[in-house]
Specification:
With 439 residues, the chain is α+β, with helices and mostly antiparallel strands. It has 16 helices and 22 strands. It has a six-stranded mixed beta sheet, with helices on both faces. Strands 7-8-11-10-9 form a five-stranded antiparallel beta sheet. Helix 2 packs across helix 8 (165-174), helix 6 crosses helix 9 and helix 6 (122-134) crosses helix 10 (210-239). It starts with a helix and ends with a strand.
Length: 439
């Protein structure tokens, strides 16, 4: 039997006792039942806000939004409507585009300690696991949907995940609820709908409790995945260098192939990238790691570039190869933005460029054209930037993004790495240095 106590127990299990409670309310029967359950408990209702996302993809979308708001108001629940652009971008499926737009909207309202309730139930879990199995998913996919997970700055919670669909429908009928029906739910062109309409009824005829048994199997996979994740994290720590987010190829190769694959997947997860396919990993090991120390291989895909330099394996996200433009450093400005993600800032120091010299000069930030040389404090002669970069192990593709600071057309500093001997002073209280930060 469904009661508000089910929701309270789920909230207690994730220690969500003080933040706001949001509920993803589509207006369909499942989310309507979840909303109705919450509204029966004054302690829950007073903290609750129903969130409805207007995707604009169906002719009935405006009517659904009106129904959602009217239902929430009738139940005494606060309501918030989002209008999003859910049309797919290049490379996105319609389902993926709608999900991404919906999640971005829902995450936008969440603060630390807040909870988002969603109405997925045991039959949804069954569909998810079967789809992952048919798509060749690994342990994480076969683990299905977790009951809770981090979401934006808060937590996403599925309090009905262990509840059978029939119980949800029985509650809706007993309470005489009125909900909306999305006609796209009956279009078998979508894989999930095909499973729901054509396959699951047959499975349940033969195995009536298949939703429960598959959910139990998903739980076993989740436990196994958690153990593997712990192993991967331990191995990952042995090969990872946090300062530049790279892996040591020599240490990586000391592991057997399954462990190396675990480490690579952990690396991708840490960077928020999609898990690499088996084929992509095979190319990575063969074409990049197997290229040799002096090679300069590039593997593109999965929204990133994989490259190697000496013993280090680099993963560059898609926006890290942007073309950077020269710019003037405005007077009295403490920092400049370079491209989309780089910030070059001034800091006060006991050594560096005298602040008076800095203030009196015309300052420009430029990028390599080739052949630049610089004299360094405490070293004889002048040195090419190429040689200096090689000395400290800066990969070739990073060198082009190193900002060069010119004072009155003279090279005065290279990012936050070196200051020219001509401008360098020490044991003074009024000097400046630079800090380069990637956001």
């Amino acid at each position: 039997m469904l009661t508000p106590r089910l929701i309270e127990s789920a909230l207690e299990s994730c220690e969500a006792s003080s933040g706001q409670i949001f509920l993803a309310y589509s207006g369909g029967v499942d989310s309507h039942v979840l909303l109705h359950l919450c509204a029966q408990d004054p302690a829950l209702r007073d903290r609750l806000t129903a969130l409805h996302v207007h995707h604009g993809l169906q002719s009935q979308a405006e009517a659904w939004a009106s129904h959602a708001e009217a239902t929430a108001r009738a139940l005494g629940v606060k309501f918030l409507l989002f209008r999003v652009d859910a049309h797919p971008k290049s490379g996105e499926s319609p389902e993926e585009a709608a999900r991404n737009a919906r999640y971005a909207a829902l995450q936008s309202v969440m603060a630390s300690g807040d909870v988002l309730l969603v109405a997925q139930h045991q039959d949804d879990q069954l569909e998810t696991v079967l789809l992952q199995l048919l798509r060749g998913g690994g342990l994480l996919g076969l683990a299905g949907m977790p009951a809770s997970l981090p979401f934006g700055r808060g937590t996403l919670l599925r309090p009905l995940l262990h509840v059978r669909k029939q119980l949800v429908d029985d509650y809706a009928a007993a309470q005489q609820l009125h909900w909306v029906e999305d006609p796209s739910n009956h279009e078998s062109v979508y894989d999930r709908n095909f499973l729901r309409q054509e396959v699951l009824p047959l499975l349940k005829q033969r195995w009536p409790s298949c939703d429960q048994t598959v959910a139990r199997a998903a739980g076993h996979c989740a436990e196994a995945y958690a153990m593997l994740a712990d192993i991967a994290a331990e191995s990952f720590a042995e090969v990872y260098q946090e300062s530049d987010n790279t892996l040591s190829i020599e240490r990586l190769n000391a592991f057997d192939l399954p462990r190396r694959q675990l480490i690579i997947r952990h690396w991708f997860g840490r960077m928020g990238l999609k898990m690499p396919s088996k084929a992509f990993q095979a190319q990575l090991f063969d074409q990049v790691i197997g290229a040799g120390v002096n090679g300069d291989p590039v593997l593109c895909g999965q929204g990133c570039q994989i490259r190697r330099y000496r013993d280090r394996l680099y993963c560059l996200k898609g926006d890290q190869g942007e073309l950077l433009q020269d710019l003037d450093w405005p007077k009295n400005r403490e920092a400049v933005i370079i491209g989309q993600r780089l910030t070059l800032s001034l800091v006060r120091s006991m050594s560096g460029i005298p602040e008076a010299v800095w203030r009196q000069s015309s300052v420009a930030v430029k990028f390599r054209r080739g052949g630049e040389i610089i004299a360094l404090p405490g070293r004889q002669g002048r040195h090419s930037l190429k040689k200096l970069y090689q000395e400290i192990g800066i990969p070739p593709w990073q060198r082009e993004a190193m900002p060069l600071i010119y004072l009155d057309d003279k090279l005065a500093a290279v990012a936050d790495l070196w200051i020219s001997a001509e401008f360098y002073r020490q044991d003074q209280n009024d000097c400046v240095r630079f800090v380069l930060r990637r956001d």
